[in-house]
Amino acid sequence: MNERRLRLELEPSPLLATALVGLHGAAAACALLVMPAFPGGLLAALLAGLGARAAWTRALLRSRASARVLELEGAHATITLGDGGTLIGEVAARRYVSRFAVTFFLRRPARRSLLVTRDMLDADSFRRLRVWALWGRLPAVATKQLAA
Questions:
Q1: Is residue 1's pLDDT more than 50?
Q2: Best exposed site among 53, 92, 109, 121 by fewest CB in 10 Å?
Q3: Could you give the 3-state DSSP secondary structure of residue 113?
């Protein structure tokens, strides 16, 4: 593998899907409590639908527009979509990194945000992604260390 390029194949995240549906469901319940008439029911249905759509596209990766493969090279990222199309863009300086997820934003020419959770990758790939997101480059290992 090239030290300057990282290819990550994303897996569906049932935990993120559950969180998205649950939080949108809670928002729908709040909308019903505040607006109990027809507008509240309509808003609740729209919020629940939005949660289901977000879980389908962003967490379960079932949509044609879902990110399936992420390739990182320097300050640029290439995202391969479910329909085979690609998005190439410069990664914005604003990134969020935690033990559980990494979020970053593409700009010029493609504009898109991407959230990668811990269960979308194996442990080593997620660690490499976190290092890249924090430091802007991939961790390098000396060849003598690999032989040991």
A1: no
A2: 109
A3: strand
Residue type, 76: H
What contacts 16, CB < 8 A, 6 or more positions away? 55, 58, 59, 115, 117, 119, 120
Q: H or E element: which one contains 79?
A: strand 76-81
Which token pair is 44?
């609740």
Backbone angles phi, psi at 31, to 5 degrees: -65, -40
- Beta-bridge partner residues of 102: 97, 116
Reported as a single tens digit per residue, the pLDDT across 8-17 is 999 999 999 9
Q: Which helix (H) or strand (E) holds 132?
A: helix 123-135
Q: Structure tokens of 20?
A: 């998205």
The Cα–Cα gap between 131 and 115 comes to 15
Phi-psi domain of 129 (left: phi exceeds 0; alpha: psi -120 through 50; beta: other):
alpha
pLDDT in tens, 47-74: 999 999 999 999 999 999 999 999 999 8
Query: Residue 82: which residues within 8 A CB-CB, separation 6 or more?
Result: 61, 62, 63, 64, 65, 66, 68
DSSP designation for 68: E
